[in-house]
Amino acid sequence: MPHDILIASWGGAGPLKAPKGVTLLPSAPHDAVMKEVSLVITHGGHGTVSRALCNGLPMLLMPMGRDQNDIALRVEARGAGLTLPPEASEAEIAAALARLTKESRFALAARRLQGAMAREITSERLVEEIEEIARP
Predict the structure, then answer these.
(1) Could you tell me what percentage of the chain is helix, strand and coil, using 3-state DSSP and rounding each to the nearest 5?
(2) Residue 42 and residue 81: Cα distance in Å, rounded?
(3) How far apart are CA 62 and CA 83, in angstroms?
(4) Single pTM value for the model
(5) Which domains does the chain carry?
(6) HSE-CB of 121 using CA atoms within 13 angstroms
């Protein structure tokens, strides 16, 4: 289904009405959705941020608590996204999305992190560290 905007996993907090060009899904597998989008808007949960970076996607983060504020700060510090408070206005959100889509540096930073994560996942360093911890 072609779409300009895809909203998935909004938590089902009441019915949402979608304008033309917006697809709503109550939930969806991260990687499948992320192959269809050019950026991610998220509260900054570890799972969504990790999957967005594994897919090389810049993010608009709107943290709501727990570890989300720290994660948002790290993503922004690495240049892979922007952070707004959850009560940001429509105009603030639109301006952030415009920057994320027009300024290529966000996508480039996300792709750099994608590469770093891929190298980390395929390296033997993790196995070596686990073996070191397990040694008596």
Answers:
(1) 50, 10, 40
(2) 11
(3) 6
(4) 0.79
(5) 38-134 (3.40.50.2000)
(6) 10
With contact defined as beta carbons under 8 Å apart, do 56 and 117 qualify?
A: no
Q: Tally Cβ neighbours within 10 Å of residue 70.
A: 11
Average pLDDT over residues 48-63: 94
Phi-psi region of 11 (alpha: psi -120 to 50; beta: other; left: phi over 0): left
- How does 100-129 read in b/e, with b if 16+ C-beta sit within 10 Å? beeeeebbebbbebbeeeeeeeeeeeeeee
Which residue from 10, 120, 8 is spatially nearest to 54, judged by alpha carbons? 120
Is the Cβ–Cβ distance between 107 and 113 less than 8 Å? no
The proportion of the chain whose per-residue pLDDT surpasses 70, expressed as a percent, equals 88
| Backbone phi, psi, residue 79, to 5° | 80, 10
